Amino acid sequence: MPTKSKSVHSEPLADRADSGRSRAVRRRARLPKPSHAHIADEAGNAELIRLNKFISLCGIASRRKADELITAGEVVVNGQVVTELGTKIHRFKDEVFVEGKRLQEPRQKLYILLNKPKDVITTNHDERERRTVLDVVQISERVYPVGRLDRNTVGALLLTNDGELANRLMHPSHNIEKEYLATLDKKFQRVDLPKLTGGMRLKDTGEKVAACKAKILGDGSVVWVSLHEGKNRQLHRMFWSLGYEIKKLERISYAGLSIEGLKRGEWRYLSPAEVMHLRRLSGMV
């Protein structure tokens, strides 16, 4: 896919050989009768996938969370509630609804790196009608942000419609690196550096955060920090615990993807090599 930049304005269960067993499985899953089913043995292709994987590919939830939605009775396939874990569906022919919303797996996967501006909400829709990242990245295809940045935090934000990749990148087990520049209200003292990087406890909750990397830059009022965690307002809370206030926070890279060359509010599609890099980081290849 060519590089593009834009400024701020600018079915069902597989049949089994034993018909009695098939009827029992269909009864438990409450799927449509065999006339509406897609036969795995006859189809013999990748279009039949587990229901939890389909939900993940659509970007609704991780596979584990999808299993919770299934067992809770929140998933409907072809008009029937499905509660059987391991149920397989046809990814393009079956109609799947989660909490009343129909899911559709994107045919074309999109991967976008945005240099997020200030005062923009990291969500697809805001009930208070504030400006969102989708108002910045104005494309006809539906994409959604991978993780969150605070309203006034700027910088690197990945958007995609590849639900499985997004969920893997957000999972703590993959330790995705995020680099920030924190501009403080006063000079950061070198004596506080080991406290910041050594796996400190947050003053507000007593919660311990993982060790990180950091360097004091320039006159000392800017600190470069590299994290593998993503707790709510984590950097703000870390510096506050040491007696500093962050005046400006910029994420300069996400998973090794830098915003260098992108002005604030500009975005571009990832190259195939960058997409492969993310897939490797997330354990998909």
List the helices and strands and how they pair.
Elements: H1 19-29, H2 40-43, E1 48-50, H3 51-57, H4 63-71, E2 75-77, E3 80-81, E4 88-90, E5 96-98, E6 101-103, E7 111-116, H5 133-136, E8 144-145, E9 154-160, H6 163-170, E10 178-184, H7 193-197, E11 213-217, E12 222-227, H8 234-241, E13 246-254, E14 257-258, E15 267-269, H9 272-281
Parallel strand pairs: 9-13
Antiparallel strand pairs: 1-4, 2-3, 2-5, 5-6, 7-9, 7-15, 8-9, 10-12, 10-13, 11-12, 13-14
Helix pairs in contact: 3-4, 3-6
Account of the 3D structure:
The chain folds into 3 domains: 19-103, Roll (Structural Genomics Hypothetical 15.5 Kd Protein In mrcA-pckA Intergenic Region, Chain A); 111-172 and 263-281, Pseudouridine synthase I, catalytic domain, N-terminal subdomain (Alpha-Beta Plaits, 2-Layer Sandwich), CATH 3.30.70; 177-254, 2-Layer Sandwich (Alpha-Beta Plaits), CATH 3.30.70.1560. It contains 9 helices and 15 strands. It starts with 18 loop residues before the first helix and ends with a helix. Helix 3 (51-57) crosses helix 4 (63-71) and helix 3 (51-57) crosses helix 6. 23% of the residues lie in helices and 22% in strands. It has helices at 19-29, 40-43, 51-57, 63-71, 133-136, 163-170, 193-197, 234-241, 272-281, and strands at 48-50, 75-77, 80-81, 88-90, 96-98, 101-103, 111-116, 144-145, 154-160, 178-184, 213-217, 222-227, 246-254, 257-258, 267-269. Strand 5 (96-98) and strand 6 (101-103) form a beta hairpin. The strands form 3 sheets. Strands 7, 8, 9, 10, 11, 12, 13, 14 and 15 form a 9-stranded mixed sheet that branches. Strands 3-2-5-6 form a 4-stranded antiparallel sheet. It has 285 residues and is of the alpha+beta class. It is elongated and about 60 Å long.
